[in-house]
Amino acid sequence: MPSSKTRIAILGGGVAGLVIARHTAGKSDTYSVTLFEQTDQVGGTWVYTDETDVDKHGLPIHSSMYKNLRTNLPREIMQIPDFPMKHDEGPSFVHHSVIREYLWDYAKHFNLYPHIKLNTLVKYVEPETLRNGQTIWMVTYQDLESKVEITKAFDTVVLCNGHYSVGHIPHIPGIESFPGGSIHSHQYRVPEVYARKKVCILGASWSGIDIAMEVSQYAEKVYISHNLPEPIDSKMSRNVEERPGIQSIQGNIFIFRDGSTAEVDNFIYCTGYKFTYPFMSTKVEIRTEGNHVEPTYKHLIHTDYPSLFIMGLPGIVIPFPMFHLQAQYILSILEGRIKLPSSGEMREEYETEKRALLEQGIPLRHIIKLKERQWAYYDEIAAAANISSFPPVIRKIYDHSNKMRELDFTTYKNYQYRIIDDENFVVCYCKPC
Ligand code: FAD
To answer: What is the dihedral of CA 343, 345, 350, 354, to 10 degrees?
Structure first.
């Protein structure tokens, strides 16, 4: 006899996968939950590895963490609201290993391991329409140890395969002639290998600046090349020079858009990531262009398949707390408390919103970077799911830490925050560690 439980397949055991598992697996009368994780640990990108190429199964390394990385958000606004992080002394911007431990504790605390299949790669996901019109999902996965492949039916699929593991590499005329080493920030691990080298870093977003700061401690010279309208400022050490975008490369000479040139030994692309769903059947339309994915409703639901969810699309957000809301929003849909509009209406709403943003001059690749729009998004999905959104103190800490970063990105990670109540926080400056 078929089970009356909703069968949920969760693809990926990073934060997003763990959070949706926590909200569904506990309701064992309602849901039968399977979380597939290709590596031998949960935690996703927070599971650091020295490796940069392939893992023991020959799969591309997933984690983009580098050895010395400290978080770029304070832990007070990174923590998942129903599972506070331990408060140690010291700055709120913690080493990545603290986050990995926290996620392992989260999985244990909510007893998620019985639902998790480690070393299991999802290879193919295909929708099938039953005679009664219902869509089910055939998920083909492989046990990477035994190599056995199995296909199983699910009612709902939640994609949590992460968005920061496939580097976007723009083509630069002449790159083929560059004799030096070049990597994407996804493969960057330690700065020591750049000792006495002349390094060019392309891109001045979070990773670009962070990596330039690390590398400049060892390198002879660092050129940080970017197209930002304003200089990123003089807070970098003296051996760092800003240059505009790269026009072309001739051997080891980089030619920048202002006509200036530089001799370069090593090149690091800090040029963002491509969002990919290589396991998805072509029956499902998922159009991706860099970090832009469509068609989705509320940055989460496939407009044509309301039983297919994609967690973690929005960028420039507070990802862990956002997953906490997204998961409960999904639950409200599955349990019928939220009635979704028709596919056509969802698509129309999506198209209208996209058009409005493009008309405001926001390029396609920035649409998903919610920034200031994130707060309205949280309030909207929380209200729809009839749960509380975040208290004002979360936004206040976010704004404060951003301001400190704008003032001086070399010191902003030395602050320690403490939440006093829903409105107030205290902050103090710790000695650099
Ligand atoms: P991931 O953590 O990437 O997890 C995806 C999981 O899916 C992985 O375990 C992967 O192995 C698995 N998987 C993928 N494909 C398959 C498949 N086919 N079958 C089975 N399993 C599969 N966020 C912050 O809040 N604060 C920060 O300071 C911060 N710093 C960051 C620094 C870097 C360098 C990067 C790359 C990201 C940073 N982020 C930060 C963002 C971070 O990505 C998110 O916070 C969050 O970890 C994303 O979680 P996720 O579950 O969506 O994806």
So the answer is: 140
3-state secondary structure of 239: coil
290 sits in the region (left: phi over 0; alpha: psi -120 to 50; else beta) called left
Distance CA 106, CA 83 (A): 7
Per-residue pLDDT, 39: 98
Ligand 1, pocket residues at CB < 6 Å: 11-17, 36-39, 44-46, 62, 64-65, 71-73, 78, 121-122, 160-162, 164-165, 207, 279, 312, 319-320
What type of residue is 225?
Answer: S
List, in sequence order, every beta strand (DSSP E) within 75-134: 116-117, 120-129
Predicted local distance difference test score (pLDDT) of residue 88: 78
Reply yes or no on whether the pLDDT at 2 is more than 80: no
From 98, 100, 126, 161, mutation site for ligand 1 pocket: most ligand atoms within 8 A of C-beta: 161
Tell whether ipTM is more than 0.95.
yes
DSSP character for 45?
G
Note whether 140 and 124 are within 8 A (CB): yes
Say which amino acid occupies 289: E
